[in-house]
């Protein structure tokens, strides 16, 4: 892992090489996180790109390359939140989002659609904590560090997000039963 000396602004080539190395290591995981939050392939690609551009511009502010993941995830999450907020203002067509699932793709299609539709109705803050907790499998303390908030806030957001998800899924199940 590049040390602090590579991150410092005084060595442009070493700084660029350090950034490229860190970015390549985190690109796939960053895209998957953006996809889990945004539920749209193109939006996730754009958000990941925008976050890396912003990170490059702010790279000189990173004091310890070992903290790159937490530092960058905060930039990526804020980029995704901004995209969600913008999309909520401009959304004219209700689309079912994609959500990664495992196992039998045909048997879980209905469940994936129901969960995806429910997730798309959560607030950006709730969607972010659900994605970090269940998609990235981060602990509450890790999520708190990534978002720069207290663990109690994360517990609260998870509680209310899961409560809202359960209610939305129950309504969707009831509607499927009626059909």
Rough outline: elongated
Please compute the radius of gyration using only Cα atoms: 18 Å
Average of pLDDT: 81
How far apart, in Å, are the first and last alpha carbons?
56 Å
Structural class of the helices, strands and pairings? mainly alpha
**CATH topology heading of the largest domain:** Rna Polymerase Sigma Factor, Chain: A
CATH architecture of the largest domain: Orthogonal Bundle
* Count of folded domains: 2
CATH level-4 homologous superfamily of the largest domain: RNA polymerase sigma factor, region 2, helix turn helix motif
CATH class of the largest domain: Mainly Alpha
Strand content: under 5%
Number of strands: 0
Return the string of H and E elements: HHHHHHHH
Description of the structure:
The chain is an all-alpha fold. The chain folds into two domains: 93 residues, Orthogonal Bundle (Rna Polymerase Sigma Factor, Chain: A), CATH 1.10.1740; 82 residues, Winged helix-like DNA-binding domain superfamily/Winged helix DNA-binding domain (Arc Repressor Mutant, subunit A), CATH 1.10.10. Helix content is 74%, strand content 0%. The radius of gyration is 18 Å and the shape is elongated.
């Amino acid at each position: 892992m590049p040390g602090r000396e590579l991150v410092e602004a005084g060595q442009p080539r070493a700084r660029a090489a350090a950034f490229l190395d860190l970015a390549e290591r985190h690109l796939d995981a960053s895209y998957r996180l953006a996809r889990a939050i945004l539920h749209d392939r193109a939006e996730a690609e754009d958000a990941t790109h925008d976050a890396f551009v912003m990170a490059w511009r702010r790279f000189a502010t990173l004091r310890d390359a070992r903290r790159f993941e937490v530092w960058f995830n905060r930039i990526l999450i804020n980029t995704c939140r901004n995209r969600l907020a913008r999309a909520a203002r401009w959304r004219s067509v209700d689309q079912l989002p994609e959500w990664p699932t495992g196992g039998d793709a045909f048997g879980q299609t209905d469940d994936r659609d129901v969960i995806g539709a429910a997730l798309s109705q959560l607030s950006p803050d709730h969607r972010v904590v659900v994605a970090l907790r269940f998609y990235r499998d981060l602990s509450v303390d890790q999520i708190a560090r990534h978002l720069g908030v207290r663990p109690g806030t994360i517990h609260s957001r998870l509680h209310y997000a899961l409560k809202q998800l359960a209610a939305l899924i129950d309504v969707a199940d009831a509607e499927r039963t009626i059909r």
